[in-house]
Amino acid sequence: MATQHSRAAARIMMAPAVILLLGWMLVPLTMTLYFSFKNYLPLRGGDLGWAGFENYTRFVTSSSFWPSILTTLIIVGGVLFITVVFGVLLALLLDRPMWGQGIVRILVIAPFFVMPTVSALVWKNMFMDPTNGLFAHLWRAFGAQPVEWMSQASLPSIIIIVSWQWLPFATLILLTAIQSLDGEQLEASEMDGAPALKRFWYIILPHLSRAITVVILIQTIFLLAVFAEIFVTTGGAFGTKTLSYLIFQRVLESQNIGLGSAGGVYAIILANIIAIFLMRIVGKNLDN
């Protein structure tokens, strides 16, 4: 057992890292809270004094606030649905023996390492361009009119692009979970005559519940801050303005640091509400 001196030594050695981590987290948060109560316009006079809760009121009463919240939730929900469903299917497929299995797994996981701006530009120009994009050529081959993806289907386009980026992450986590499944249980159910669909529903899916929970929790944290894909594709137009993009507009385009900081506080509140909801509803699987 650890002695009192060893515990004290461990705390002393961990203290610098803990202090650095707390500073890295608390300093930006404190500055955001501070500026959210200020009239701070760098290019229009600088610090113009205290604003109180005026920035919070202006931000929440903006005509773009609630639509941006709805857009954010739609993107998060759509990406989670696609990545979980197709992640499970891809994990089942990759778990089966096949020729070149290692190469196939690398190709499936590779999109996760592509920068968001690069993947968004590739999808926008090579696949979704209404004139020279791959989808446009396929549409014309079947005698149909090409779709203006960035204007006619802007929100589904963003969901597809972001899902393509996060699908490898979900697949990797779910594939690891499937490989930890007891093969004897599946063999016994197969010998008893259980069809493949029932084996999946009653054995594989319950085993994947904890992995699915981890995927949902981690992806939700990052998806709430989706920005780069919107910036390089639609620029927030056509109903794709999320809360993070609205904050960007207030800070950089309007040069209103105080108003943008108030939006950042709202983003923190939204993230915490969703995190608490997920931990209570979905996170119960981690205890089972």
Explain what you see:
The chain has 288 residues and is mostly helical. It has a single domain, classed as MetI-like (MetI-like fold), CATH 1.10.3720. 73% of the residues lie in helices and 3% in strands. The protein contains 13 helices and two strands; from the N terminus they run αββαααααααααααα. A two-stranded antiparallel sheet has the order 1-2. Helix 1 crosses helix 13, helix 2 crosses helix 13 and helix 3 packs across helix 10. The two termini are 29 Å apart.
Core attributes:
single chain; 288 residues; mainly alpha; MetI-like fold; two-stranded antiparallel sheet; globular
Strands across the major sheet, in which order? 1-2
Indicate the CATH class. Answer: Mainly Alpha
Largest sheet: 2 strands, antiparallel
Do you know the CATH topology?
MetI-like fold
Domains (count)? 1
